[in-house]
Write a structure and sequence with these properties.
- The strands form 2 sheets. A 6-stranded mixed sheet has the order 5-6-7-3-8-9, with helices on both faces.
- Helix 4 crosses helix 5.
- It contains 7 helices and 9 strands.
- A hairpin with a 6-residue loop joins strand 1 and strand 2.
- It is globular and about 50 Å long.
- The protein has one domain: Rossmann fold, CATH 3.40.50.
Length: about 230
């Protein structure tokens, strides 16, 4: 079995008439270190798929298995712990706390669970160096460019060595130059950290950096590598 397996995943939302089906039986397998881009226009269900895989939402039916565990069978407390340990998120907006430095923001996931230590601080510093912000670790987000803030968000997502990193339109609010830099950084991550990476985007330029490309069409996944 693949490290990440999505099977017959469906999601619908209630309406006054019939339920609105967004995802209609998604099947997906991803191995450790694999990089996957999911394309599709706004409203096609890309973010919904990412939220389901990341356990931020629950499916109408179907299953997600990560490392042999179906997280939707866990209690609420167990699910929160599982998500924190195994899944990292990068969103279109960086969600850095403005009153904290880059270093403090990156190490925050460990502080939040009461596990901050000298080791986690060292790892945060290493990640900040890896994303090219070594000279900016003491700066606040307001002192950084948009691209630098997003790089800090990538470092934060990797702090706990997650098996899976999910990025939702990570370059959507950036200028073309910074978008290219973030795309290159994301593509390099799995090889460096043995982490699975799934990026959803409407940008073909970003998707072309990925060896495996998929497209959501009418609620199901189709290969986009030949397109």
């Amino acid at each position: 079995m693949a490290e990440l397996t999505v099977s017959k995943l469906c999601k619908s939302f209630p309406t006054r008439a019939e339920p609105l089906e967004i995802l209609k039986g998604i099947d997906l397998e991803v191995e450790l270190g694999e990089r996957v881009a999911v394309l599709g226009p706004s409203g096609c269900g890309k973010s919904t798929l990412l939220h389901l895989i990341g356990t931020l939402d629950t499916p109408t039916s179907g299953s997600v298995t990560l490392g042999g565990v179906n997280p939707f069978t866990l209690s609420e407390a167990e699910l929160a712990r599982f998500r924190g340990e195994h899944v990292g998120f990068v969103f279109q907006e960086h969600h850095l706390l403005p009153q904290l430095s880059v270093l403090e923001n990156v190490v925050l996931p460990m502080v939040a669970i009461g596990s901050a230590s000298a080791d986690s601080l060292r790892r945060a510093e290493e990640l900040i160096d890896a994303v090219g912000l070594g000279g900016r670790r003491d700066h606040k987000p307001g002192e950084l460019s948009g691209g630098e803030r997003q790089r800090a968000a990538v470092a934060r997502a990797l702090l706990r060595r997650p098996k899976l990193v999910l990025a939702d339109e990570p370059t959507g609010s950036l200028d073309p130059e910074n978008a290219q830099r973030i795309g290159e950084l994301l593509v390099q991550l799995p090889a460096d950290h043995a982490t699975m990476l799934i990026v959803v985007t409407h940008s073909m330029e970003l998707a072309e950096s990925f060896p495996r490309r998929l497209r959501i069409e009418q609620g199901v996944l189709a290969s986009a590598n030949e397109q």
